[in-house]
Amino acid sequence: MGNPSADRQQMTIGTLARRVGVAASTLRYYETVGILSPPARVGGQRRYDDSVIGVLELIGLAQDAGFTIAEIRHLLTGFTHGTPPFKRWHVLARKKRDDVRARIERAKHMLHVLDALLSCECSELAQCAHRCNPQHRQHPGVRAPRPRSEAKGAA
Question: Is 40 helix (H, G, I), strand (E, B) or coil?
């Protein structure tokens, strides 16, 4: 019986990049940031075996879920050896889901402000902060924040 990794198909970085649909520079970047193990080299060229395709598919799945490179690195290398995949996903997905929900709320607020600005009929920009600000419409007694130059002087 031979070495299992020696029996696998060896690919150059260009071949792998075409096969998985990413740029070769992306694969080098993944190596640099620690989410893809550096492959063996033959004559100075990177040689990947088929097993790396699964890792790249996993990276793609994590990116589709919105995980950052740091979070993906944590998924791959930040747990004790033997931690089951489902536990890794649960830890990271719970936090990411909370982050996404917060971003959605922020986006809803941004849309509300943009809608207010689209109904702007002010004749001077200085009026917009008060007249077009949805918070001021809901809370007419709320004043706009002071300009930074005034705020520094008050400190």
Answer: strand
